[in-house]
Write a structure and sequence with these properties.
The protein is an alpha/beta fold. The protein has three domains: about 220 residues, Periplasmic binding protein-like II (D-Maltodextrin-Binding Protein, domain 2, 3-Layer(aba) Sandwich); about 180 residues, 3-Layer(aba) Sandwich (D-Maltodextrin-Binding Protein, domain 2); about 60 residues. About 45% of the residues lie in helices and about 10% in strands. The strands form five sheets. The chain has a four-stranded mixed β-sheet with strand order 2-1-3-12. A four-stranded mixed β-sheet has the order 7-10-6-11. The N terminus is likely disordered.
Length: about 525
Amino acid sequence: MIRRLTAIAVALCLLLCCAVASADSIYPMEGKSLTVLTTVDSDLALFGFSSYADTPGFQQWQKATGVDVAITEVVDTNALLLQLAGGDLPDIVRCGKNFYPKGFAAMVDEGVATVLTDKLPEYAPNYWAFLNSSENIYNSAALAMDGSLEIISFAGNFYPETSPFRNYGGILVRKDFMDKLGMDAIVTLDDFTTYLRRCKEELGVSTPLMSQDYQARYVWQTGLITSPFGLVSAGAYQVDGVYHYGAYEPEFKDVLSYLHDLYTEGLMDPNFAVTDANTAIAAMTSGDSCAIRGMTSYFQNIKNAANNDEMQLTAIPALVAKEGDVPFMSFATTITSNSFWCFVTDECKDVETALRFMDYLYTPEGMDLANYGIEGETFEYDADGNPKFTEFVTNNPDGYAVDPIMRSYGLINWSCIHRQAFSEQRFPLPEQREACNIWAASDYNKYMISYSSVPADLQEENTRLWTDLETYMNEHVANIITGADSLDTFDDYIAGMKALGMDRYIEIQQLAIDPYYKD
């Protein structure tokens, strides 16, 4: 706690004294170079690039900072770990937060990462000030190390705490079908069931609730249908700092009963565990389906695939038992994502340059580059000085969507702040922006687990337990939904999870969240 208060005091001092680095005063630096190792960013291929070295955004970052970066991109995390095992460490490693199997402490002990907490105030003052602008932001980037919370990386994408764009997934339905049925809103579980049933019976919809493989599980795992049964979600959540896993709670039996009823009545995709994206989108556009769990991108994907000008989509909120209730949970990302974390290694020969290079993305100029790309090409400043996308982005002549362009001209897949104004422009359809607000209408901030650090000595046990538990859960939940296993076997299912070590897994997860949630 003392360290946290000191950190906040330093950050406030930096802000009040205007000591936060100005890009004009530091950049470009002269004669600086760095090496970076990362996994390949497949999103670049959507705009025709195979390497960051060739993208306009990454080139502009180097030009603005004066740092020449030799970037090595490997196919996946396993290849990255093999490269690191060779012993020739780069200056910076960019990968997922949890990429190192031995855990965070081992990353520091083995030189894959170095503790940055004491270096950031001097060499990355913009990032440091941002981290300390709120305790929630600091905790989202801090990791539990030897009894204290330390910063060992530039964390992945940050979202403003109050941004509805943290809620970019949920249930979408055919609005035109609602209109045909005279339904103004779908708020309760009964509303949703009635909508599915009436679409099947009155409109001839063959598979009302469509799915897309793993997305199907999100219907219950992220709390979209669980509140009416008194369950926060079927996934992980916390109540006053106590860890829970919903699929191990007794209330989950009623959720499975509901899903089984949908399945047997023909209201749910019979292939919910394996349906691919193209099949799912085709079903929604053809009218064979009327509801699907998906992301905001589905609005564009489905609209672009449709040949029906009358087709309309809308989002519905996480469902409740009766109108006026507030759902416990909905899908939301944490303040910072688990992707695109950047670690400085012990073999970095110029830590100051590495930190200043990364810190650039937290300067006003760097934030514009990360979010909007290059002035005159992908954005212009309006009369009020606000960046606005050009038609090259919003109405690309070759038909490219916003995201592929901005992953190439901007740097949104690196450690940066996703400005809310950027997100508002990122989603061109009003239905997309409205959807995020609809999906945000829950108590998710109260229950979601925003921070956790599994102790280093428990990493391998935690991974082994979860691998077995997840496989068991997915199989038995699917069997109960389809009727391959009777609902009467629910107690056996719980006993099976217990036998596989679910209680021990929960104990480890409790230790992982304690440093953040204990007073």
